[in-house]
Design goal:
Glutaredoxin, six-stranded mixed beta sheet
Length: 690
């Protein structure tokens, strides 16, 4: 019976086609002239990538089997042992999941494509790696990226491992083994191997690198599936480069197959591996670095979550000692931070919390690069005020340093010598990450106040300290009113004098055209008699130019000062409303003495002035005392605004280090924030309704 010819040729090492091994491999050359850019590669492989749901198989098990084959087939001593006819060492067989079913059909199909023994090679035509690679990508089109790499490598390992397995057993087992090796002409390749043992070792290094790249591809994919990119920012970049890595992995596999055939030929002239070798090395290094960074970021995120949980529990105790011990003494490597005071007098970490017990703590947080002498000078004034008045306060400097080099330690000593308060060195990287996430530390120097119960107060007290120096505690005690503060910031003597008189109602206005200004003046004139009944007079003042800049910067700064303070809720509402009114165009601010009455659009202010003559008939507004005027005006303005066309969403933006959440001053709902820290609330209505 005539033998049936095989349409796909023989395996790349077995040489079972009719012409024999040496007839085909003697005319084969490795052709590798890829000069594709990453963009061209992505376009090429994306056209050949269409994952389907019915292609699932145990990729991890197949990779484990492939690793076992390659680890043994690329052992440095294997070739020399075979040439010496040394016995194969006894090895324990690794356990493999009994339920695993090998994807043998696709593996054999890929083997045919990476085979060097193609019929067309008889004509002396060079073997094109690019053509084989394209066909392999077509066959692997329905598989996910990591499965493509594993299947291609497993197909190569199937043939490569089979060859070395037979070569290792030849002459040592039985007639069946020897007969199979003879048919596959394994004994015939010993002679050329003697001359090219060094090239085999070089090839094995490429195979090992390709295996490592495949491992890393699978590891990165596993990280991506089981973790959030928010926890590991580098993970997205790592996943994005996987298609390119798979492209070069399959390229390397095809090149390795062609090189194997070249090595087993009887030609004297050796052929170098193509430039895929350095490419795979660079990919392995890059992917290994990305994977390592991802693992560190994920571990860091998990530790941060653990610290966050501990901090929540500590703050529930309402004891600052518990909070300080949890935050400052948290460690991921068993090494506690070093705490010192004054001229580097060391304080035991374990007893530090007791030293701040029942005190408020002012934390100064900075890098060693953005600290300034001006900040230290301002903080020293605050420190002196604490010492002078025996206030129950402690100050702590937390330098943010990831890597404590000799240079960083010298900088710490330099700046620390200027600070008489507590200093923390070698803070855990986990705590640093926590400060970035929970305390909004962005690399810019900041200060945060913690009360004796361990609760955070001012999110960034440093701006307050820079402006008020040793008057910092007056602001905390609310000894300065909103109007007094913003008028003082405007440096207008006339306004400052008016604000000292409770019988004067001051109307500040701006960003208005002449028609609105005339309307406001007209309504004030019409309401003059009613105002006199309260023993009051109205003063109008237009704010523009540099004075307007001073007004709004003062309001913004004051709001930043009081953000995060529960006890200053009323003040914050007033300031938020002022900023929102300014954001919507024309605005009027109404005050009486140092008290802020209200603010809003000139239309709603004019409506209040218009109905003021009706107050005499209103039984709820019978009192004509100076002290009641502001309340009446405020109540009417609130009622009118709720039903007017100027009941805008509350919307404004502020600078500095604002909190992530802020309640609306009108309805109390939490306002939405944007990346530029703009707060907005429509009081329950849809945004399009305003």
């Amino acid at each position: 019976m005539a033998s049936r010819s095989r349409k796909d040729g023989s395996g790349f090492l077995t040489g079972t086609n009719s012409t024999g091994l040496t007839d085909t491999i003697s005319s084969e050359r490795i052709q590798f002239t890829d000069s594709l850019t990453n963009e061209e590669i992505e376009k090429l492989i994306n056209e050949k990538h269409s994952p389907e749901d019915n292609t699932d198989f145990a990729v991890d098990v197949l990779l484990t089997i492939t690793e076992t084959i390659i680890d043994h087939a690329t052992r440095d001593s294997l070739v020399s042992d075979i040439l010496k006819d040394a016995n194969a060492p006894y090895e324990k067989v690794p356990s493999i999941n009994d339920s695993f079913i090998s994807p043998l059909c696709i593996l054999k199909s890929i083997c045919c494509e990476i085979s060097s023994c193609k019929d067309r090679a008889r004509s002396g035509e060079e073997i094109s790696i690019q053509i084989r690679r394209a066909v392999i990508f077509d066959k692997l089109k329905p598989y996910p990226w990591e499965a493509k790499a594993v299947l291609a490598l497993a197909a190569f390992a199937l043939e490569y491992g089979d060859f070395w397995h037979l070569a290792q057993l030849y002459g040592q087992c039985n007639q069946l083994t020897d007969s199979v090796t003879t048919l596959k002409r394994v004994p015939d390749v010993k002679a050329p191997l003697k001359k090219r043992e060094g090239e085999v070792l070089e090839l094995n290094r490429l195979i090992k690198d390709t295996l490592e790249v495949t491992r890393l591809i699978c590891k990165v994919e596993a990280l991506y599936i089981h973790n959030r990119t928010e926890d590991a920012p580098t993970l997205y970049a790592a996943v994005e480069c996987i298609p390119i890595c798979v492209f070069w992995t399959i390229t390397a596999i095809v090149a390795c197959a062609a090189k194997v055939t070249d090595l087993t030929s009887d030609e004297e002239m050796p052929h170098d591996l193509p430039d895929v070798v350095p490419k795979i090395e660079r990919i392995r290094e890059k992917l290994n670095k990305l994977h390592g960074t991802c693992v560190k970021e994920i571990d860091l995120a998990k530790s941060c979550k653990r610290l966050h949980r501990k901090m929540v529990d500590a703050q529930r105790t309402l004891k600052i000692t518990e909070v300080i011990n949890t935050l400052i003494l948290f460690t991921d490597n068993g090494k506690l931070p070093v705490i010192s005071v004054g001229s580097n007098e060391e304080v035991k970490s374990e007893t530090f919390a007791e030293l701040v017990k029942e005190n408020s703590v002012l934390f100064y947080i900075s890098s060693l690069e953005n600290i300034t002498d001006d900040d230290i000078s301002d903080l020293i004034q605050v420190y002196d005020e604490i010492q002078k008045n025996n206030r129950k306060w402690r100050m702590v400097w937390i330098p943010i340093v990831e890597d404590w080099t000799k240079n960083q330690n010298e900088k710490f000593e330099k700046w620390g010598s200027k600070m008489p308060w507590y200093k923390v060195r070698f803070l855990s990287s986990i705590v640093i990450k926590y400060l970035e996430q929970e305390w909004s530390y962005t690399g810019i120097a900041m200060s945060m106040v913690m009360d004796p119960r361990g609760q955070r107060q001012f999110h960034n007290a440093l701006d307050l300290i820079r402006r008020h120096k040793n008057k910092f505690f007056d602001i905390l005690d609310l000894n300065v009113s909103v109007i007094e503060s913003i008028f003082g910031n405007m440096k207008n003597k006339k306004l400052e004098e008016w604000s000292k008189d409770d019988t004067k109602c001051i109307f500040l206005y701006g960003d208005m055209d002449e028609s609105w200004i005339n309307e406001l003046k007209k309504k004030v004139e019409e309401a003059k008699d009613t105002i006199k009944d309260f023993g009051m007079s109205i003063e109008l003042h237009r704010v523009e130019g540099n004075e307007a800049k001073a007004l709004w910067s003062g309001i913004g700064s004051l709001l930043t000062d009081y953000l995060g303070q529960v006890e200053y809720k009323t003040v914050k509402k007033e300031l938020c409303q002022l900023l929102s009114d300014k954001n919507h165009g024309e605005w009027v601010i109404v005050s009486q003495g140092y008290d802020l009455i209200t603010s809003g659009h000139p239309a709603t202010i004019c409506d209040v002035l218009k109905i003021m003559s009706q107050w005499k008939q209103d039984e709820s507004k019978t009192s004509r005392k100076t002290s009641t005027f502001g309340n009446y005006f405020q109540e009417d303005h609130k009622t009118i605004t709720q039903t007017s066309d100027h009941n805008y969403c509350c919307e404004f933006s502020i600078s500095g280090n604002p909190p992530k959440n802020l309640d609306c001053p009108v309805c109390g709902r939490s306002m939405k924030t944007t990346p530029i820290i703009r707060y907005k609330c429509c009081h329950g209505a849809t945004e399009t309704s305003h």
